Fold this protein.
Amino acid sequence: MKSTPSKFGKTPHQPSLWTRADALKVHADDPTTTQPLVSANFPVLSDEFFIWDTMPLRDIDGNITSVDGWSVIFTLTADRHPNDPQYLDQNGNYDVIRDWNDRHGRAKMYYWFSRTGKDWKLGGRVMAEGVSPTVREWAGTPILLNEQGEVDLYYTAVTPGATIVKVRGRVVTTEHGVSLVGFEKVKPLFEADGKMYQTEAQNAFWGFRDPWPFRDPKDGKLYMLFEGNVAGERGSHKVGKAEVGDVPPGYEDVGNSRFQTACVGIAVARDEDGDDWEMLPPLLTAVGVNDQTERPHFVFQDGKYYLFTISHTFTYADGVTGPDGVYGFVADSLFGPYVPLNGSGLVLGNPSSQPFQTYSHCVMPNGLVTSFIDSVPTDDTGTQIRIGGTEAPTVGIKIKGQQTFVVAEYDYGYIPPMLDVTLK
Ligand code: FRU
């Protein structure tokens, strides 16, 4: 990839590579990297709404933060249509699978609050209809800015296009609950540039989304991670020696893997408020390995940078595979080089008996991993499924050097605060 000159001087880094050789080390069903089975008897957060990607309120350093004792989460949300003729099958039954699969097209940002870090109560929509400039409100990150309760919500405005945007509002608490006020003016920040990050014109299946702003604990500057694909026309990417890595004899054939071009993007803020951003070359690329590295995020621990990102079985390239789940990489400095955790990158995957049980994992700095329930088989053959659209049981992992271990399981949607802010 060509690097562009940066206003910050010389381009600071070369992207780290998740190679095909790394991915060959991915093994589903290793108990230390597999999410415990989710029972088909799960409770649902709401009969009215599907929820999926969950975004806990946090500070700019990544700490999950409650306000006046109230925990707050944001979720991608879509209404369920059990009575809509459009979602009835030939026998007049509600086709919940089709309704669920269509949800991305009508995703809206909602919020929930809780005194206990679980048993979430619905707050409502974050932005009124018409505020967001596009149809879909896709994932991002809510940041609590100060003791006045101001919140910057970074998210992705999708269809038409895909723009990383932010909107500012405020969290207000009473004894009885939480409300969000403001969130009325959406500010576009940036879009894919076609030089470092692939555009829609280069690939109709491009990904550019899921902003995760943070302050680098070492240099103190404001940065943002996001999901992207490596720039270039679809099909033009090269899967060379570097992308293949050190494979055993017989594993040199890369098939059609040039179509899989995921990367974890990074941008740096030019100002204190995070209103003006400059994209930098990706931190990590997965050309020839996987087409999606979604919702990238960090845990800063033991002076190291633990980079996590979610990915799917169906987005893997020819000749490599792995479960739906969260993958991780570690480096001693922000710009790498990053090494896959556990050798392969796999941190927490679905068991092969329930390959779609959960997704959109978010690893929090306390080692707790939240995700949502997608679908769980209800019979032994796996042909009958129950759709989730609700919070999965939280999993505890231990992060140790270049390894991670599943060590605990908690209640559905358990997202306890790491610190509490008393509003002034
Ligand atoms: C992950 C994800 C995000 C995107 C959203 C769309 O589950 O694909 O990358 O923002 O869902 O619904």
The first helix runs from residue 20 to 24. The domain at 16-419 is CATH 2.115.10.20 (Tachylectin-2; Chain A).
